[in-house]
Inverse folding.
């Protein structure tokens, strides 16, 4: 889809083509294209079908909004899930102006309630520059939180898509989007800098911040000139790239680590993990976990806590200890419920041996296993095949090292906490 085809998609004729394409999602693609070509030219047909497919994929990130939004394939892939974007918007706008009347908050005739109105206790009217906005997933949340946003992206098609999204969701009066280079942004002229540098090159996804677009030195220069900043980065960002004085926050959504963000100019620094949708937050306290023998339970910390190097803090919550000083499995004797770790009750612990493991599982009549591993070179799918299980029960097995010895922990068949 090029810019001309997208512009046509926004016309009344293009909207009719898109509506018809949406109705054809999930049907045979050749038949769908053939049907649309009876009424529309090839370029519009392709654009409509592409956009309809992207909207369907986008529902996982954007929910009902996806049905009104527009996307590019790369923009959808990099865009932030709505719940995460809203979390960041709440952090950025948290303030002390809850009791000020609407006109003093920078939002004329602001309603007192509604889905797009921040709860009491939030600052309204922050001026934010979004230095690499993509299709706009983040600035939409910021605008809904009451911010005014100046957004920039280098790609004209992406800018057109972002503008269309602001308009489609009724936020065009709070957002301006323009084609521009992030390096030319002047963050000192705004209250907040937000940046989501592209993490793909012509060869695919990159994990090297120097290969981001804009490159990491440019991002750091922008951050240094901003009074407050939030930079979205990959969860695996090497610690040495985190600027001094910044807070690094890893966010997990329903148990899956989605991304990290670097914050400057906010209260607090160091490392933070956040769980969504619950909103639980854990920060570094300096807790250090002891190492000890396997207890009645094994706790698997949430990935955000592991990424944030907060395993010691989780161990303290569950009164636990590490199975191995270098591995993020915690063991303990008490059944403590916490959102920060899944809990498994231990039935047996064996030195790792495929033959012994198969015998132990067959003795327990286990025919289905959930296999977890950390610091183990075992190929999970090959092991699953080699076990050749056929019982009626289920179990969770954990492949790991215990004091540097390859081991397997067999856990009971009840669901983890």
């Amino acid at each position: 889809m090029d810019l001309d085809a997208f512009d046509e998609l926004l016309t009344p004729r293009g909207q009719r083509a898109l509506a018809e394409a949406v109705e054809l999602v999930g049907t045979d693609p050749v038949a769908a294209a053939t049907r649309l070509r009876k009424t529309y030219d090839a370029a519009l047909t392709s654009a409509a079908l592409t956009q309809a497919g992207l909207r369907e994929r986008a529902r996982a990130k954007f929910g009902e909004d996806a049905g009104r939004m527009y996307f590019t394939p790369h923009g959808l892939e990099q865009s932030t899930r709505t719940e995460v974007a809203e979390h960041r918007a709440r952090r950025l706008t948290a303030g002390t102006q809850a009791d000020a009347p609407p006109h003093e908050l920078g939002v004329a005739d602001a309603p007192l309630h509604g889905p797009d109105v921040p709860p009491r206790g939030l600052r309204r009217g922050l001026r934010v520059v979004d230095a690499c906005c993509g299709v706009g997933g983040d600035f939409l949340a910021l605008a809904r939180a009451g911010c005014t946003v100046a957004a920039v992206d280098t790609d004209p098609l992406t800018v057109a898509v972002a503008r269309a999204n602001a308009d489609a969701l009724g936020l065009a009066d709070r957002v301006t989007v323009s084609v521009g280079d992030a390096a030319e942004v002047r963050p000192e002229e705004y209250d907040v800098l937000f940046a989501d540098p592209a993490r793909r090159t012509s060869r695919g996804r990159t994990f090297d911040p120097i290969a981001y677009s804009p490159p990491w030195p440019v991002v750091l220069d922008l951050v240094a000139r901003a009074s407050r900043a939030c930079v979205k980065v990959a969860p695996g960002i090497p610690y040495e790239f985190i600027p001094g004085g910044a807070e690094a926050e890893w966010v997990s959504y329903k148990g899956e680590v989605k991304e990290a963000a670097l914050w400057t100019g906010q209260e607090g620094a160091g490392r933070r993990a956040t769980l969504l949708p619950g909103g639980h937050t854990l920060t570094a306290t300096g807790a250090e976990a002891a190492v000890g023998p396997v207890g009645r339970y094994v706790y698997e910390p949430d990935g955000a806590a592991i990424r944030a190097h907060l395993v010691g803090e989780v161990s303290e919550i569950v009164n636990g200890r590490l199975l191995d000083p270098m591995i993020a499995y915690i063991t303990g004797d008490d059944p403590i419920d916490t959102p920060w770790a899944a809990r498994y009750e231990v039935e047996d612990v064996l030195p790792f041996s495929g033959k012994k493991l198969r015998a132990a599982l067959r003795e327990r009549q286990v025919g289905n296993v959930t296999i977890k591993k950390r610091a183990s070179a075992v190929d999970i799918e090959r092991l699953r095949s080699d076990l050749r299980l056929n019982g009626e029960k289920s179990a969770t097995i954990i492949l790991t090292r215990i004091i540097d010895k390859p081991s397997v922990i067999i856990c009971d068949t009840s669901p983890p906490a």
Summary: DSSP finds 13 helices and 18 strands in the chain. The CA atoms of residues 302 and 340 lie 5 Å apart. The mean pLDDT is 90. The radius of gyration is 25 Å.
